[in-house]
């Protein structure tokens, strides 16, 4: 399946409009989270990515535990 996506303004950001058919194939709806992953063949959009979720959990833990250190490094 190939879908033509249009980038549009959403406030001060940009967003992509996903056609109803794409939402159905991904089995997602408004409010769900999608992951954009770079692969050797381009980009992949998926509703769930275990590796990204694992990495985000680790990053959030490190940021919580080292908040003061990260603030000093940012100066």
UniProtKB/TrEMBL annotation:
Keyword DNA-binding carried by entry: yes
Domain of life: Bacteria
Domain (SpoVT-AbrB): residue spans on this chain: 8-53
Pfam family, one: MazE_antitoxin
SMART domains according to UniProt: SpoVT_AbrB
Keyword S-adenosyl-L-methionine: no
Gene Ontology MF term list: DNA binding
Keywords per UniProt: DNA-binding
Membrane spanning residue stretches: none
Record protein name field: AbrB/MazE/SpoVT family DNA-binding domain-containing protein
